[in-house]
Write a structure and sequence with these properties.
With 231 residues, the protein is α+β, with helices and mostly antiparallel strands. The chain is built from 5 helices and 18 strands.
Amino acid sequence: MSHVITPRAAATVPVAGSDKTFPVHRIYCVGRNYVEHAIEMGFTGREPPFFFMKPAGAVLPVAEGETGRMPYPSLTKSLHHEIELVVAIGTGGKAITAANAMRHIWGYAVGLDMTRRDLQSEAKKQGRPWDIGKSFDLSAPIGPIKAAADCRIDASTAITLEVNGQMRQQSTIGKLIWNIAEIIEHLSAAWELQPGDLIFTGTPEGVAAVVAGDVLTGEVAGVGRLQVQIA
């Protein structure tokens, strides 16, 4: 049986130190998962985790050592950066316990959850979905995925973002409100995770606007570096 239109090629992300790629199935994002970021967005406390999604086609893969180019998106006058540790799922499952969660991880990467903040804020005010603010084209720049066995991630792992050489976001993975294993447990209670799923785990405080010409350099210690220029 043939298709009536030509299927689009699957979205992929490069694998660090290899000529292989990681095919993307879904992109899950955790909202307000660092205490100080929750505070700067007007919230406090350890609220239950909540999630939103981006389409697989939102990825902007950036090869190791290269600078990706992200066009400034339409409709917005307030494009914000959100640096995040990304978890790449290698083994799927449903109702995964936190105790077993880490064995489902294939690897990790550095990602940016780029946000049309003015459109997201307006959607919030009207009680509407965030898609227009979060799920637009190329809204998920991501660096190469590094195999979990080659990464050492613990509470002290640093996560940073510089814009034009100036520090904007700086924290550690230990400041996640819901840690990686707990995120997988909560997600897999609602969706059956699949190989190829990406999980953007949340961003620290310091989110702010960028403009055309700005160069964003994000890093998660021991995982990798991601550089993107807003075009």
